[in-house]
Amino acid sequence: MIRERIFVLACTLLSVTAQASDSIAIVHARAHPVSAPVVEDATVVLRDGRIVSVQAGAPAPAGARVVDAGGRDLTPALFHPATQIGLSEVGSGQEATAAGKPRAGYALHYGIDANTQNIEQARADGVARALVVPSAASDDVFSGRALLLRLRAGADIVERTGDVVQFASIGTDGSRAHSHAAAWQRLHEELGRARAAPAADGGDPEASADAVALQAVASGAAPLAIAAHREADIRQAIALAQRWKLRVVVVGGAEAWRVAPELAAAGIPVVLDPLDALPSDYDRLGARHDNAARLHRAGVSIAFAASAQGIYTSWNAGPSLRQAAGLAAAYGLPDDVALAAITRAPARIWGLDERIGTLVAGADADLVLWDGDPLEPATAPAAVFIAGQEIPLRTRQTRLRDRYLPASLRREAGR
Length: 415
Fold this sequence. Notes:
By secondary structure, this protein is α/β, with parallel strands linked by helices. Helices cover 31% and strands 23% of the residues. Mean pLDDT is 88; it is low at 6-19.
């Protein structure tokens, strides 16, 4: 009996020691839970891909690997809510657009390449999750289904497919073959048909994929993202959501500030790009820099989906997000809301797990330690953790820098 008790005690001690050795403790951090006030001098413990605890001034667990933050900002990792990383290296190439039918059923996960340079770069820039979205179709209002990536190391980065988000596009960013009126009429017709009849189980697989995708929207299993900018189209999106009882998200929304109270009353979030603040076409004549601040003050849930230089949908995904959030803060959006718009808010808007985008016990251990203010463009990650594992910050850009760095500068930098 005594031997058995000694054996059990030894096993327990070994288990505790093993757990401690697998833990990471980030100490002396200025932690931003996003869902709660900032915690100064925080100790954040990570284990088994989750956050175990966030406590001010707490000691690191015995045996844990200790990372000294030195008072720097620690935030949840970034979440890009509308990008095309993993599909093409630079712009929104053909991989993001379906050729022919079906449109609503067009699935992107077949084309994801975990080895693209923009995936590696986004991960090193602090992006842990990304919603990959299709490009607007040239001959249909429906664009296809989005998918969710988690940018962990390795090839297994597709986290969710299927009933994630259905995309439709209206106006200058949408179908070139449909007027605004025709596009809205088709949306109403197809959603009404999907509400009236169950999804097809057999027959033409392409037609079935369309039906299944639209049934997911009509039943509320998946939100409908409507890419639109002008006020008139956003009002139509509100009417569509109310008529068919849909989960609608406006993406773009350059003139969304004009209908902010109506969006708030309808519970419709907006995913916008604060860098897109110029009247670049007739659908954006009302674009303004304080769009995000005005929407927030009205009670609209917002998230940011920035492109690089307003052109590319894949490269510089992380820095573009932070620049957009910083610009929105400069035009009146509170800093904590701007940070939430690139971390926690996207997960909530797309109806994903509550464990995403926050620093609390039980949340996903996706974090970034910054070398400065997270909303400043010149800031960079000092350390990135995804699923509780520290991610190497080496990228093709750093490898090229080191390869061609003059020997004298290399010696100064210690490389």
